[in-house]
Amino acid sequence: MDKIKTMTMEWTGNSLIFIDQRFLPLEEIYVECKTYQDVAKSIKDMVVRGAPAIGASAAFGYVLGAKQNQHYNEKDRFFQEMQNVKKVLGGTRPTAVNLFWALNRMEKVMEDNLEEKNVKEIIDILEKEALNIAYEDIEINKAIGRNGEKLLDDGDAVLTHCNAGALATVDYGTALGVIRAAVENGKRIHVYVDETRPYLQGARLTVWELMKSGIKTTLISDNMAGWVMKQQKINAVIVGADRIARNGDFANKIGTYSVAVLAKKHGIPFYVAAPLSTIDIETENGNAIPIEERNKDEVRFCYKTRVVRDDVDVYNPAFDVTPHELVTAIITEKGVIRQPYEKNIPSLFV
Ligand code: MRU
Predict the structure, then answer these.
(1) Residue 90 Cα, ligand 1 centroid: separation in angstroms?
(2) What is the rounded distance in angstroms from the CA atom of residue 263 to the CA atom of residue 265?
């Protein structure tokens, strides 16, 4: 398997092609990245987004970087150049830990082979590793789906925030993977989707993806979530994560925290679906998670329409941190874990 093609990305052997998520669902445009700099720009500009998708993209970006430096037969120089490739790719978005997880995994493979192999052989090994990361991601999401779907009953309505679907991963999705697995298992599931201002990942991406898969979908604006819960329309909340700290606090798309507080108030189970690569065991709690702030125009505009003057002051944190007390369970490929997270999260890694 030397290629991969999903809805989110395609590795051709010499380039990485993305569906441009900035224009969905109105336009289906594709962006071809031929260099690691192109991949870095696509991650930064959110052509591709979602923690596992960012990780896999960075791995392929690293391979492109290696190919761009293949003329350095002298391994020290090649190694030096690859450190720069890693730095550029790692400098794109700070919150999703999958980015750093994937780059560290790629770098380790390079280091492990530096003594024995020549540059050409190392590049082949790196390409295999990036493909492994991508293929594994799909299998991991399916395992998350199998583990999580047991938490849902036939006829349940689920609220989700942002997009933790096929578009946020290599394929299948984490939070949406759980929903997909339940539906594949014959359960009737109705999904309420928060529109997810300012970037509208819920309205633009999640709704598009769920409707494509024939899953019953209702879009609400973010400020409707509390009322919809109060009306007893929601049986469970499932979201993805960008980084889960050792104690179970986790960063996800801005607005997730509010949804978790509302779920607690209404006695609705609140689940986080994420692979082990999203768990940052080195980070003790949510206070230490770096939160990306994005361009203020994302708030001044609603999609492409300006809603306020450009001198209006704006604060635009792209993520928030939800404390672990609000999390009913974390659904991983290794199983579903519950509190106490300080004990149960580290046990996933033994
Ligand atoms: O800014 P984004 O669109 O990259 O944020 C994405 C999210 O917050 C997702 O919920 C998270 O990455 C999980 S994706 C499986």
Answers:
(1) 17
(2) 5
Domains and CATH numbers, the chain: 4-142 (1.20.120.420), 148-347 (3.40.50.10470)
Reply yes or no on whether the pLDDT at 1 is more than 80: no
Ligand 1 mutation pick, 97, 160, 253, 256, max ligand atoms within 8 A of CB: 253
Q: Determine the Cα–Cα distance for residues 305 and 292; give it in Å rounded to an integer.
A: 23
Note the pLDDT tens digit of each residue in 16-62: 999 999 999 999 999 999 999 999 999 999 999 999 999 999 999 99
Q: State residue 55's pLDDT score.
A: 98
Question: Whose CA is closest to 179, among 142, 135, 205, 232?
Answer: 142
Alpha helices by DSSP H, listed for 69-157, are 75-90, 98-113, 119-149
Encode pLDDT of 94-132 as tens digits.
Answer: 999 999 999 999 999 999 999 999 999 999 999 999 999
Spacing, Cα 222 to ligand 1 middle (Å): 16
Q: Which residues belong to the active site?
A: 242
Show the tokens assigned to 230.
């109060």
Q: Side chain identity at 24, as an amino acid letter?
A: L
**pTM recorded for the entire structure:** 0.97
User: CA 228, CA 192: separation in Å to the nearest integer?
Assistant: 9
Ligand 1 near 168 CB (within 6 A):
yes
Distance 18 CA to ligand 1 centre (A): 16
Is 50 touching ligand 1 by the criterion CB < 6 Å?
yes
